[in-house]
């Protein structure tokens, strides 16, 4: 059944139990309040550190949003964009859109003004609901954005080019909207690709995808009503939202944390007695570093309920998990693999029972199939490297308004992921690298992830990214961008000597000591690195010549 039905069920069965908590460490007001205890309009003078809503209030707010949209002419099949930071308002708005059969279109909050306009026009959105942080970016193209679509502002001091969400929502009913029934075959959401090859592509999903993701998350991580899930990544991304939907399935509490500092994360887990925590690699690394340096003393916190730490969105260095288990020996662990085209993480997952296979991304997830193919689309022999393909009820319908790109990745129901992988003799899949990130040097294929895993084992290295740089003789050479742990120093000679244990062709030919940039989902921004250091390398080579 559609995910909105689970919300309504929880509102009936767990009406007065807490559904969502918002923690904002940046706020000075340390009061802890329930949303129903203060007015719909939140002033700057009243900004509590902690807010919460019950399942009953959650459903009521979603109904109000749904009825507001209906009153402004939004109907079934229309598209409504959400451009907001994580907050207690985000998910009720998302579900309000779904309740009337409209299509939710979350926008990346890092989009600049041009990208917002591009995505709004590509997805043909009929309304944009945005927060105060985005006034300037919306205003830049307000004239074009407002043509044929609503601009709805969530916050105080509504700009002249938009309508106030808080004022409108106060005047509509909190009862279930009068809308036709929605089935899993109806379209539910449009998400956007990471845009690593240019502007993002719009990914269209049916409600079936959303339900599949929710059921799969609950099954994979055995989420129970008593669990408390800590959500840190942005809700616009499929990963954060669909991991949270495991909580939706069983009516358990979730905490939306605004902040990624190690102490902020550990404090939230302690205060809210969180049991399930999804981290990105950089955050896990930062926590370990804080523990090792003494900045965090685990004995100062109440972490007894914390049972599961899982990671997704990017390859996970096995050394990271081995180090994690030193400090958290009783934690279950899982790795989740996925992409927005497969409704986020989980189409492949390690499984909490398979920690002995750390380094693998795992086995096919609940109701998923996998295979590895060569350049001609033929299944390769077990152990050989090829492109990973997945098939299941969470595969996208298409790239919206991009038939050519759709045909490139959807073939006979299989989604061609663009990730290179191999399968071992036990059936576990290992991610080798992105197809587009493979470095071809002198005819040899070099897979950066393998070198990055090796570099992560160095005690001084916090993070590493390996990219290809142009070379007249070899075509490409490998370069390692290395971010050292705080307080550590190193030299190119030290890293080169460490890499002597690698085969000669895998050894980085250039060492660069700089921070490793990662996007909001934890993925290394390799296109930006190639653009920056590729240009610098060419200039240097020309100068030498």
Q: Can you put this structure into words, describing what you see?
A:
This protein is α/β, with parallel strands linked by helices and 545 residues long. Among the domains are: 3-229, ANL, N-terminal domain (Rossmann fold, 3-Layer(aba) Sandwich), CATH 3.40.50.12780; 440-544, GMP Synthetase, Chain A, domain 3 (2-Layer Sandwich). 30% of the residues lie in helices and 27% in strands. A ten-stranded mixed β-sheet has the order 2-3-1-12-11-13-14-15-16-17, sandwiched between helices. Strand 4, helix 3 (90-99) and strand 5 (103-106) form a beta-alpha-beta unit. Helix 2 crosses helix 3 (90-99). The N and C termini lie far apart (66 Å). The relative contact order is 0.08. Mean pLDDT is 90; it is low at 37-46.
Q: Which structural traits does this protein have?
A:
alpha/beta, Rossmann fold, GMP Synthetase, Chain A, domain 3, five-stranded parallel beta sheet, 28 strands, 27% strand
- Strand tally, please? 28
Give the strand line-up of the largest sheet: 2-3-1-12-11-13-14-15-16-17
What fraction of the residues are assigned to beta strands by DSSP? Answer: 25-35%
Distance between the termini: 66 Å
Helix content: 25-40%
CATH topology name of the domain at 3-229, in short, is: Rossmann fold
Number of helices: 16
- CATH class membership of the domain at 3-229: Alpha Beta
Q: Name the structural class.
A: alpha/beta
Mean residue pLDDT = 90
Question: In this structure, how is the largest beta sheet organized?
Answer: 10 strands, mixed
CATH level-four homologous superfamily name of the domain at 3-229: ANL, N-terminal domain
CATH arch. level architecture of the domain at 3-229:
3-Layer(aba) Sandwich
Round the Cα radius of gyration to an integer and report it.
Answer: 24 Å
The global form is globular
């Amino acid at each position: 059944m559609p995910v909105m039905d689970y919300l309504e069920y929880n509102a009936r069965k767990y009406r007065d139990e807490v559904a969502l908590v918002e923690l904002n460490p940046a706020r000075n007001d340390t009061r802890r309040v329930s949303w129903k205890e203060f007015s719909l309009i939140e002033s700057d003078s009243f900004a509590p550190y902690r807010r919460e809503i019950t399942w009953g209030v959650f459903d009521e707010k979603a109904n109000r949003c749904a009825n507001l949209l209906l009153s402004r002419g939004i109907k079934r099949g229309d598209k409504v964009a959400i451009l907001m930071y994580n907050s207690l308002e985000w998910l009720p708005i998302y579900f309000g859109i779904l309740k009337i059969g409209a299509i939710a279109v979350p926008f990346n909050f890092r989009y600049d003004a041009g990208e917002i306009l591009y995505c709004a026009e590509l997805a043909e959105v009929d309304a944009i609901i945005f927060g105060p942080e985005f006034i300037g970016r919306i205003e830049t193209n307000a004239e074009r954005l407002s043509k044929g679509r609503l601009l709805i502002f969530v916050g105080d001091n509504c700009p002249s080019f938009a309508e106030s969400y808080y004022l409108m929502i106060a005047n509509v009913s909190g009862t279930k909207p009068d809308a036709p029934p929605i089935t899993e075959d109806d379209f539910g959401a449009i998400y956007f690709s990471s845009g690593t090859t240019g502007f993002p592509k719009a990914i269209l999903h049916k409600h079936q995808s959303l339900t599949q993701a929710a059921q799969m998350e609950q099954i994979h991580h055995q989420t129970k009503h008593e669990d408390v899930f800590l959500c840190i990544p942005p809700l616009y991304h499929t990963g954060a939202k669909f991991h949270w939907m495991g909580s939706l399935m069983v009516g358990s509490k979730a905490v939306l944390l605004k902040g990624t500092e190690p102490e902020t994360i550990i404090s939230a887990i302690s205060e809210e007695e969180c049991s399930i925590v999804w981290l990105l690699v950089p955050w896990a690394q930062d926590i370990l570093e804080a523990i090792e340096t003494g900045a965090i003393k685990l004995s100062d916190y109440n972490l007894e309920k914390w049972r599961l730490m899982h990671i997704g969105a990017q390859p996970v260095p096995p050394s990271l998990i081995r180090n994690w288990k030193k400090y958290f020996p009783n934690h279950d662990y899982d790795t989740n693999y996925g992409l927005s085209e497969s409704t986020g993480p989980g189409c492949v997952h390690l499984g909490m029972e398979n920690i002995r296979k750390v380094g693998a991304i795992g086995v096919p997830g609940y109701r998923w199939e996998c295979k590895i193919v060569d350049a001609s689309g033929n299944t390769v022999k077990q152990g050989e490297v090829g492109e990973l393909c997945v098939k299941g009820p969470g595969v996208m319908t298409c790239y919206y308004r991009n038939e050519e790109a759709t045909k490139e990745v959807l073939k006979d129901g299989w989604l061609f992921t663009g990730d290179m992988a191999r399968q071992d003799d036990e059936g576990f899949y290992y991610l080798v690298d992105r197809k587009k990130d493979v470095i071809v040097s002198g005819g040899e294929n070099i897979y950066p992830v393998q070198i990055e895993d090796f570099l992560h084992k160095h005690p001084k290295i916090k993070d590493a990214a390996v990219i290809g740089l142009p070379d007249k003789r070899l075509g490409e050479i490998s370069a390692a961008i290395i971010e050292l742990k705080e307080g550590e120093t190193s030299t190119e000679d030290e890293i080169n000597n460490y890499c002597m244990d690698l085969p000669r062709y895998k050894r980085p030919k250039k060492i660069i000591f700089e921070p490793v940039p990662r996007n909001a989902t934890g993925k290394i921004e390799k296109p930006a690195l190639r653009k920056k250091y590729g240009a610098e390398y060419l200039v240097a080579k020309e100068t030498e010549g």
